[in-house]
Design a protein that fits this description.
With 374 residues, the protein is an alpha/beta fold. Helices cover 42% and strands 21% of the residues. Helix 1 packs across helix 10 and helix 6 runs parallel beside helix 8.
Length: 374
């Protein structure tokens, strides 16, 4: 099973922490939709004959697209690909876009999973982030979506800003649980260099993130959500049984996916490909039929390292059977040797045939993965 990701690179305004590719000018939107449709034709054979299990509209802010454009994109997908009858179709939305009419539109389009970027319930924090919605809209948008029949909803939250304390984070988590959503993604705020927050940090207008406090918030989140029946299936993701993100889970398990739109990435098992992160250049190069992406063939060592980085973030961990079936024996020996020290210090545990991170290890997931790299 494979997935398709569409990057819709437009936002109403720039969030102060975000370093994803986007534009606040919608002047090129119509041309970009045409380019997306053309890219489908250019890359229709990228996934060979594999059935499409997931479709994901990300961004940017896909909820800025009018119904006719979303329909055309979906129509093209169903025309060119073998899409599973029960495919998961996720649509990222901002709370301020989710009017009753917008929700009716998404229902007509047969979108069956909503990803709503709440980020915070704190009014002052939302303004500091430069979000386009209010705290009231955060809650109202979720309840409105539920009223319109959407039961597969995930919300995004961010922790670790200067507005966060352990006490306020507990209240945020309780409010999120009370909304009754079956999935929650929560990310520790990071200071990215090419953002407004990064600029303010360099000019000493903002302080560094308190890593110790963030670690406390992470542990509190893990404990609190698991007590409410959520499964901590990836470092930043929690879900009730039956509501894991299929699209992201397949990505973490190394399944193939096709990414379309400026800055979108694709993976076919042996190579990685990424589109140019510039709207106008992407549109121009698509029209010429070439030069809109870059590609790299992955060595076995690179595929091994990538598997370490991704697998260790999940509840499934590193599957030793998969490792032996997929990689050279020396790489397997390397992993078995290096992992022993991690088991000894309590960062990793062996569950059946899988090596998984402990709660202690999850706090240092990327560092531990890098220690296992070759």
């Amino acid at each position: 099973m494979s997935g398709i990701y569409l990057h819709i690179p437009y936002c109403k305004q720039a969030c102060n922490y975000c370093d994803f590719h986007f534009s606040t000018s919608l002047r090129s939107k119509e041309a970009l939709v045409e380019a997306l449709l053309a890219e489908f034709d250019l890359r229709r054979n990228y996934l060979s004959d594999k059935r499409i299990q997931t479709i994901y509209f990300g961004g940017g802010t896909p909820s800025l697209l009018p119904e006719k454009d979303t329909f055309r994109l979906l129509e093209k997908i169903y025309k060119l690909f073998d899409v599973s009858r029960d495919a998961e179709i996720t649509f990222e939305c901002n709370p301020d876009d989710l009017s009753v009419e917008k929700l009716k539109e998404l229902k007509r389009l047969e979108i069956n999973r909503l990803s709503i970027g709440l980020q915070s319930f704190n009014e002052e924090e939302l303004r500091w982030m430069n979000r386009a919605h209010t705290a009231e809209q955060s809650e109202a948008s979720v309840k409105r979506a539920q009223d319109k029949g959407f039961d597969n909803i995930t919300i995004d939250l961010i922790y670790g800003s200067k507005f966060s304390s352990l006490r306020s984070w507990k209240a945020t988590l309780d409010k999120a649980v009370a909304l009754g959503v079956p999935h929650l993604s929560s990310y520790n705020l990071t200071i990215e260099e090419k953002t407004r927050l990064g600029h303010d940090f360099r000019h000493q207008k903002e302080a560094a993130i308190d890593d110790e406090q963030s670690a406390e918030m992470f542990m509190e989140m893990s404990d609190r959500l698991e007590k409410h029946g959520f499964i901590h299936y990836e470092i930043s993701n929690f879900a009730k049984e039956g509501f894991f993100s299929i699209h992201n889970s397949n990505y973490w398990k190394g399944e193939h996916y096709l990414g379309l739109g400026p800055s979108a990435h694709s993976f076919d098992g042996v190579s990685r490909q990424w589109n140019l992160p510039n709207n106008n250049t992407y549109i121009k190069q698509i029209a010429e039929g070439e030069g809109f992406y870059q590609r790299e063939e992955l060595t076995e060592a690179e595929r091994f390292n990538e598997y370490m980085l991704i697998a260790l973030r999940t509840m499934w961990g590193v599957d030793i059977t998969y490792l032996k079936r997929t990689f050279d024996g020396e790489l397997v020996k390397h992993f078995l040797h290096e992992s022993q020290a991690l088991i000894t210090n309590g960062s990793m545990a062996l569950k059946g045939e899988c090596y998984v991170l402990t709660e202690k290890g999850k706090l240092l997931a990327d560092r531990i993965a890098s220690e296992l790299f070759v």
